[in-house]
């Protein structure tokens, strides 16, 4: 792919290729390797939203360019990139790397992203799948910046008051994140959301499971065929290689992924 509109050193990202294992909290890899500075932020932002690159051959080097670009913006702590990153969420819902890494990118940029995430979460122009990225991002932000945990939990909890069909799905994601954050202070709001039919029962039908996960009641015997939110927790605990975001789980190293990195959807 010929991309003359990217200049050195940003252009080097188009030929760098795979870098699957990456630790957002500890790395300054791109800044050190390519000598990137704040001067390159506009080009990096442009590369993140370059759909020609996103649509490139999955086996090409260029297809990795946007991934390297948003990681570089994270290392630069670029607050300028917050809105541009959020603006492409709905376009990149099928891009598994973007969905997995965006929360860690925004957390590394810092708490300056919280107001923009709050606004995105509240925006009815985006569907629940898109807004769930904001939920995930607030969860990671709360874990990596404990001094802002209460603010993030409050934003998530307030959304549970909404009961339209789109919000019912979104509320299911919110409950999962609140439980991951061990947000016991949100228990009454979660219970009210269940009682008020503001939770999509296909996703999250079990208030008892939520109470167990929050440590509010003792677990019953292990379910043979868990469903709803119980299945989500079961899946989470069975796959420790997935990026962990709640406090106490440690590393945010991006796991190795195989196959087409644009086709994984959140179900």
Average pLDDT: 84
- Name the structural class: mainly alpha
Order of helices and strands: EHHHHHHHHHHHHHE
Beta strands, count = 2
- Indicate the overall shape: elongated
Notes on the structure:
The protein has helices spanning 29-34, 41-48, 51-54, 65-75, 82-87, 96-109, 114-122, 128-144, 149-159, 165-180, 187-195, 207-213, 228-238; strands at 22-23, 253-254. With 267 residues, it is mainly α. The chain has two domains: 1-76, no CATH class; 93-238 and 257-267, no CATH class. Helix 2 (41-48) packs across helix 4 (65-75) and helix 7 (114-122) runs parallel beside helix 9 (149-159).
Short description:
The chain has helices spanning 29-34, 41-48, 51-54, 65-75, 82-87, 96-109, 114-122, 128-144, 149-159, 165-180, 187-195, 207-213, 228-238; strands at 22-23, 253-254. It is elongated, with a radius of gyration of 19 Å. The chain is 48% helix and 1% strand.
Attribute tags:
267 residues; mainly alpha; 2 domains; two-stranded antiparallel sheet; 1% strand; disordered C terminus; phycobilisome; HEAT repeat domain-containing protein; DUF1186
């Amino acid at each position: 792919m010929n991309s003359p509109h990217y200049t050195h050193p940003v252009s080097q990202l188009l030929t760098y290729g795979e870098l699957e294992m990456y630790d957002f909290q500890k790395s300054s890899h791109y800044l050190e390797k390519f000598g990137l500075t704040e001067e390159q932020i506009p080009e990096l932002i442009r590369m993140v939203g370059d759909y020609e690159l996103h649509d490139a051959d999955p086996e090409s080097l260029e297809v990795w360019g946007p991934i390297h670009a948003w990681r570089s913006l994270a290392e630069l702590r670029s607050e300028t990139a917050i809105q541009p990153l959020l603006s492409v969420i709905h376009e990149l819902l099928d891009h598994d790397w973007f969905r997995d890494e965006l929360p860690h990118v925004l957390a590394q940029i810092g708490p300056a992203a919280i107001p923009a995430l709050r606004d995105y979460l509240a925006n009815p122009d985006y569907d629940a799948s898109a807004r769930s990225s904001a939920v995930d991002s607030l969860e990671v932000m709360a874990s990596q910046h404990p001094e802002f945990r209460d603010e993030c939990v409050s934003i998530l909890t307030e959304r549970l008051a909404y009961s339209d069909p789109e919000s019912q799905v979104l509320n299911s994601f919110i409950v999962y994140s609140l439980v991951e954050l061990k947000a016991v202070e949100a228990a009454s709001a979660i219970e009210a959301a269940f009682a008020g039919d503001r939770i999509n029962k296909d996703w999250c039908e079990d208030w008892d499971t939520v109470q167990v996960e929050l440590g509010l009641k003792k677990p019953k015997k292990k379910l043979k065929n868990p469903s709803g939110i119980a299945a989500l927790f079961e899946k989470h605990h069975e796959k420790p290689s997935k990026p962990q975001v709640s406090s106490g789980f440690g590393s945010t190293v991006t796991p190795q992924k195989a196959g087409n990195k644009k086709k994984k959807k959140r179900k």
